[in-house]
Fold this protein.
Amino acid sequence: MRLALMKGGLPDVAVSLRAIASMLSLGHAARADSGTAADEDQAMARVAVVTGGTRGIGAAISLALKDAGVTVAANYAGNAQKAAAFAEETGIATYQWDVGDYQACQDGCAKVAEDLGPIDILVNNAGITRDATLQRMSLDMWEEVIRINLGGCFNMAKAVFPGMRERGWGRIVNIGSINGQGGQYGQVNYAAAKSGIHGFTKALAQEGAKFGVTVNALAPGYVDTDMVAAVPEAVLEKIVAKIPVGRLGKATEIARGVAFLCSEDAGFVTGSTLSINGGQHMY
Ligand code: NDP
């Protein structure tokens, strides 16, 4: 199937989702080569939860995983209209809960597992900004960003990691940020949370390794989403001027990186940070 996809150097439009899944190897390793198609589909159905999976980068991740043959649950916080439109358009199941709420994560993941099956893949993508200089930042602005962006990773991992460990296979991908790597003026809360995600990733990777659970981070640069649309135009122009590739990233470019980290092929990749930022930050 891998060869068929690459034939002629161009993707064959008739290639099935099953072939794409095979290429990305997102199905279960125990997939039978000689079973019926139904058996194969059953065996292949890894289940993923993508937090903040109905908009922006998260929506692109949900779609990339779905296209790779994964059964996806896309979580969101409160924009029900956007979530309903996303579900209608893509057929992806959506679930509302606040990732900053420990019990809500436990309950939400239990509901996903009941509806779709045990969770094999977690993408901690949900995130918010509450920007201000330290001088102007309130305690609420600090706490809200830490609670959702960093606390959300802990809460979600607590809900799914034990099951992954028990079943001997799991993929956790945490979405960090270029601003967690290099800092950013007016973002002590966001940079601290994202930087924390990178440490969280490396520590949990050590705990998961011998159980077949990989834990990686992906640090996007500036990507064209609603979050970046909130940045004043003059500031954005200065940011783009500093990106060697000369443009903002696309959500699909981040999603492809996540799909790789979630694949069977990435079993030896753990505790790493994949930077996708147009060359803006290198080390
Ligand atoms: P968006 O603001 O476009 O979308 C955010 C998503 O997260 C929405 O689906 C939102 O749900 C959800 N969300 C927010 N808070 C919560 C919560 N408490 N519980 C559950 N879901 C929540 O963000 P982006 O797509 O731009 O960013 C996605 C991730 O990538 C974030 O972690 C961000 O920090 C990171 N990132 C983004 C960059 C960029 O340039 N865009 C750069 C570097 C990192 P709802 O629709 O209900 O509001």
User: Anything to note?
Assistant: The first strand starts at residue 47 and ends at 50. Residues 45-276 form a domain with the Rossmann fold fold (CATH 3.40.50.720). The pocket of NDP is lined by residues 51-52, 54-58, 75-79, 82, 98-100, 125-128, 148, 175, 177-178, 220, 222-223, 225-228 (CB under 6 Å). The two ends are 37 Å apart (CA to CA).
